[in-house]
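Can't attach files on this board, so I'm pasting raw text. These are the components:
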Amino acid sequence: MGIMTLTFGAVCAQGLPGAPVLDAFPLGIEWGALFDRAVDERAVSLLACAVAEGLISATPAQEEQLGVGHEAAMRSCVWLERWTLDVVGLLADAAIEVRVLKGPAVAHLDYPDPAWRAFGDIDVLVPSSRYDDAIRVLLAVGGRRRSEEVRPGFDRRFGKGACVTLLNGVQVDVHRTLASGPFGLTVELGELFRGSEVVTLADRPVPVLSRELRLVHACYHAALGDAVPRVVALRDVAQMLGSTELDFDEVRRIGKRWRAEIVLARAISLTWDALQLAATPASEWATGYSGDRFERRALSAYVGADRSYARQMLAGLPAVSGLSAKISYVRSLAFVDPNYAVRHGGGFGRRVRRAWNARTGRERVA
Amino acid sequence: MAMSDADRPLGGSGRLVQKLHVLTRRGAFGRVLIAATGTRPLTLRGTGIDVWDFFEAPHTEPELVDWLAQRYRVPPAAVASDVAPVLAKLRDEGLLGWAS
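---
Top answer:
Structure tokens for the assembled complex are below.
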């Protein structure tokens, strides 16, 4: 691990229990690299707040640079929250139940102050049965889907969701589950809407997931999202685990029911490694957890150099319940919609075939 | 025809107050605000933040001018000319409204 990596993780852990003690930011080229990485990973707000709280000292020039970046991030956040209220209102008008995910929910409920947590889009979860309606509502106000479905109806039955870009450029990720592939298919969707918490935005109550489900979702995002998770995704995991109000046993029970304890364990281990936090019972549990055969096989579709959406889709087959659903799932992957195929140059079908060959040992996937 | 709330002139005995439907963040840079129906975020710094915080409770514009003049030891007339455009901006952006 290089000095740069060590410094970045440790810097982004400031304010957490068990975080490494740091005196000051580096200077010169090292500072430039650290700041650039913070911009890339949407972590400028974390650094700015750590300085404001006196957790780490900065030169006046560094403070100035952080202030400019923090202001830009916070302008973007209030702008997105303003449109979150509109999106929630549109869905409510169509009698579609909704839970706001990630950004605004986590910033207001899990951080000491929402100014610590920046975000770049809007994420909403809707019941699977109303997923198509929710997409239609957003398209009706001028939104455009960013990508086609593999086949019509695939997203509603098997997918994670879709991104709709509104006329003003704001991106709304409409979710029906918490991940693509096998770990999205094993989520008990009804549980996501059993109970909720509320975040107050502009004096209006907005429903969000319960504290334990927010952590489960943060773990899904950190462990299964980007090949190398952004530091903010890891910070979310640590931030929520640091809450004295969290029932970690309940979090594990949810993971067990959804055959996804390995996702929780991977997210926590990645977090503790990257942020260099002192060990806790949760991190020790995560280190020792290896998962069953299903979990290990499912996880392998999300990690490593050959991770791909096609691999995740194929790995999802064992998690699809019922023979007719399995047949429908396979048919969707084998015969993609012509529009989808044209947009992806036939690449999706080719990747599915390669993933299938690799799974059955007929071809090594490089 | 009755004068709308937005057309009502500033100054005088009318009391202004922060509107409830405002989204906000604070940092060392200052404060960013946008109304729930706003068209763009606004950044406040320095005395702009003082002005915003003053209207957490309903106050008149002359009360604000007196308070700032005492706080910064500046002639009230100078303060009045400085705060008028700030108040107009806050009201135009839907951040301040008339207290009932």
